[in-house]
Amino acid sequence: MTEVRRAVAASASLWERDEEIAAITRAVDTLRADRSSPGLLLEARGEAGVGKSALLGEARRIAEALGCTVWSARGGETLRPVPFNVVRQLLQPALVSMLPEEAREYLGDWYDIAGPALGIADPGERQADPQGVCDGLVAAVRRLARREWPLVLLIDDAHWADQETLRWLAALAGRLDETSVLIVLARRPGDVSGDSARHLDEATAVGRPLTPLNALTPDATAGLTRATLGAHADAAFCREVWAVTGGNLYETVELLAKVQDSEMQPVEAEAAELRALNRSARGGGLVARLEQLGVDSTRFAWAAAILGGGITVDMVARLATLDRADAARCAELLRDARILTATDPAPGQPDGGDLEFVHPLIATAVYNSIPDALRTAMHGIAAQLVTDSGLGAAAASRHLLQVYPDDDQEVVEQLREAAREHLAVGAPDAARRCLERALQEPPLPEAHARVLFELGCATLLTAPATTIGHLRTALAMPGLDGEQRVDAVFRLSQALLHNDQLEEAVRTVEAEAARNPDPSARLRLQAVQYMWEGIHAGETSSPRRSARLAELAATCTGRDNAERALLILRGFDAMTHGESAEEVVELCDRALVNGRLAPGLGWTDTEWGLELPMMLASSYAYADRLDRAEALFTEALRAYETSGWSGGHLSLAHAYVGLGHRRRGRLREAEKSLRESLRIAERVGRGLPLYWSAICNLIDTLLARGHVAEAASLADQYGFAPPYPSTIVLPDPRSVRGRLLLATGRTEEGVNELEAAEKAAAARGRHNPVVVPWATDLARALATEDPGRAARLASDARRQAERFGTDTAIGEALRCAAALETGQRAVRLAAQAVTYLEASPCQYEHAAARVEYGIASRSAAELHRGLDLAESCGADGLVARAREALAVVHAG
Fold first, then answer.
1. CA distance to 34, 183, 203, 797, per residue, from 803 (Å)
2. What is the DSSP code string of 258-274?
3. Which of 19, 322, 323, 450 could form an SS bridge with 327, CB 3.0 to 4.6 Å?
4. Other CB atoms within 10 Å distance of the CB of residue 282
5. pLDDT digits (tens, 9 = 90+) for 372-401
6. 3-class DSSP assignment, residue 179
7. Which residues form the Orc1-like AAA ATPase domain (predicted)?
8. Which of 830, 825, 826, 793 lies closest to 812, judged by CA?
9. 0.70 cut: is pTM over it?
């Protein structure tokens, strides 16, 4: 009899779902039609109990019947703090079934990045980049989708999925056009907020919603009642079933099952009993029914609700303090009462659970029925059981978060360890929750500042404003000494930088350096101060700063990283000020160890950050040592990709690789790298310095290619206009925007922008005409209107270029001078420009000089050479200009 009722209930759950089932069937057929077909996300949305889970069950049946691989997972209300919980349920079973060597080979470089989050690999020692882990999980699905095609992923109760899973889901949904997989998810409207809501909305926005799942109509309720109880159920009884349940599918099925159990006749005379019977299925009625099963069964159900997932009889027995036989008996009673059920083995639960609640509504009711004090105590016991089981501090932290603060230093240490584990797998928000809870315990006074410091490090990338408060508080307390205090000050200054408070960052490290008695610590802090000052794009500069930096660097031999940092900073300062390029290169070379970045100064090292190696590589790039610059840029890209750092660090790496291509004259490659940089920067957030690096270099490259309209469109689309960032961007964005305005015919605005660039450069003492190329563009713009001023600008640019001394700088100044002249003087200057730029590594500028020399001298041979160079660079505008000039020469 029980089996018959279950079969009827299962089919009943699909009443009035024909349209949704047809949509799922079509989606599965589309997926199966072609391995290269794009993926699709279907969303089933409805209130609790309307049949979302039943619809996903039918989706599984359809997909499996048509030969698809189906993986499924479910969010849990009490499991939301567990990072990667739902994505682990989906992917872990398939990966665990492989041999470790097979899984590593299959996931490739992503194994060490995504493997720890999936629980199939040990985490590394350093903090994982959350965006890199997310990208690794997306890559894992894409690879598994090819192997397991056609693959269907089912996610129930997505509104209760953990934030890390929802972030992954949003990223995967954004790439479904190139990932042949069908995702069907079910969610309630509401019940999610903050970043989780944003990620879930992003995912479903690119999907296709199924018809909203509504309550059953009176006619459907009557049909379901008669299908379950028999055709003799009278109309009044059926109407009362609908009135009592409101057409809620779950409540209707449960109520009809209870009618069968009670042997009630489905007639009007007994319809009045339905309301009392329905109350026993939920809320207080469910609690009363649970109590009727006995104290042991109640304790068993409570323990199962505390565990939430991975419910095994053995674990529940230990938590409820029952012996194994009694626990097994309770489990059977709760299954018969339709409170618990055996886990469907299909999802392959990673926690090895063999029981689950029949419905989330029941789980919530049972959990909420536990007395508050007892619930808290049971979470504490559960944390100890999880720890004793060897599952680690991170797994136990979900329970520790629910325990009342009690000045327990063991809890503090467990939460700190859990935070480290969360950071190692790329879950900084979970780490933050653990450390915030540890502070409530609270830690001992001597440890309090260290916990705050750890909290500040955990939130650095995700919430710099919050980090500032944590670190300032930590530094004001005793407990941070020596290197740890210097680290905290450095992290605070980084947070201030990320929060666009660069001047405050400078003052913070300057004040700490003044009071720190340790010479080595003071030297490091001074280096950090000069580093932040060096990237500050503010309007004022102290000549004394550069002089002091030069004095410090003069005594440095590069014996430690503080000295190497000062050498790099001095080289960068000299480069931006347009001092001797030879001296710049000599300073940079002294900062290397056997021609490579020293340990601790690498791209992924956190002691100093990425700013120093970026300064080093940029100095080489603008000093015409592109071989060394490109080696460093490529090393950065490889380091971030290998480490899975796919957020702001990777965006900057692509931007600087693009800068290297642009300087070389490989304009097509530069555009490709810079578009990728901009794509990642958009994901991180507009307005940040890395965003400006991407868009500024991309517009500069498009202008060099002659794609003026596209450059203007991108500038409008991405807000390439004042106000500019507080950090320096290479090349100078004012100069690039001025060139763009001139190219689009907005001459007056372009002149104004270049004059603003002149003013800003003078205030900061930045006289390198290659980094801040306002003068040559402004001279050309004023050639007709104010030839005297144009000539003075060109002369000054040549003087500064000769001071800097690179072939590129001098050649570009000569190109400008030639453009302002006519006749044989123009020819001579153009020829000199070619001579310098031919020796330069910058092929686009060489090509431009060749074409201009060919035009001035009316030489077809020079124009052909310039045309060949322009074509190899991808400079389409220059190619067109060369061909037009050739046509004139041949016609003449």
1. 64, 62, 55, 10
2. HHHHHT---SGGGGGGH
3. 322
4. 20
5. 999 999 999 999 998 888 888 998 999 999
6. coil
7. 16-184
8. 830
9. yes
